[in-house]
Amino acid sequence: MLKRMKRPASGERNLERLARWRELCPQIVVRSTFIAGFPGETEAEFETLLDFMREAQIDRAGCFAYSPVDGAAANALAGQLPQAEREARRARFMAVAEAVSAAKLQRRIGASMQVLVDSAPSLGRKGGRGRSYADAPEIDGSVRLLPPEKASRTLKAGEFTRVRIVAAEGHDLVGTPI
To answer: Could you give the 3-state DSSP secondary structure of residue 19?
Structure first.
């Protein structure tokens, strides 16, 4: 499959590389994007991709269904999959990617992390937002900020604050400034 896509890769080496990176930097966040339904992709190859995703534990993964591009050599390849199958594979991939991401976020509960405040919570009102080093604005989840535990503490948009993570909700974390 990768040769058809003209991309060199070795799943085993990629897994080893990810393990080494995580050994050197346990807080690393890995992001990647994948294609589902490339011409000639078999169900077995697609299942291998899903297995890789589960084992690699990519923190932030996106996927798009293959679509022909003007002038691309792939347009002439045999084994073009129907659009519905390409979209179904993309959806299956994203279900696995979201499960991996959600499990990784659950493991952050109880941790303390630095968060950039995007909007500050006011006392007695929930709704402040921030993001950690792992969150790209308008792409990834965010950290919902609960009102600070100390009533005298105020937060301002644009500042960094330490937060204790108390919950994970979908793609977002929930934290209390400490």
So the answer is: helix
- Among the residues of 80-174, which ranges form H helices? 83-106
State pTM to two decimals: 0.82
Residue the block writes with tokens 């959600």: 102
* Nearby residues of 20 by Cβ (< 8 Å), 6 or more positions away: none
Return left, alpha or beta for 57; rule: phi > 0 is left, psi -120 to 50 is alpha, else beta: left
The two structure tokens encoding residue 131 = 């993001």
Phi and psi, residue 67, nearest 5°:
-140, 145
Distances (CA, A) of 35 to 2, 114, 160: 11, 33, 36
* pLDDT (tens digit per residue) in 59-107: 999 999 999 888 888 888 889 999 999 999 999 999 999 999 999 999 9
Half-sphere exposure of 29 (CA within 13 A, CB side): 13
Taking alpha carbons only, the member of 103, 74, 96, 87 closest to residue 6 is: 74
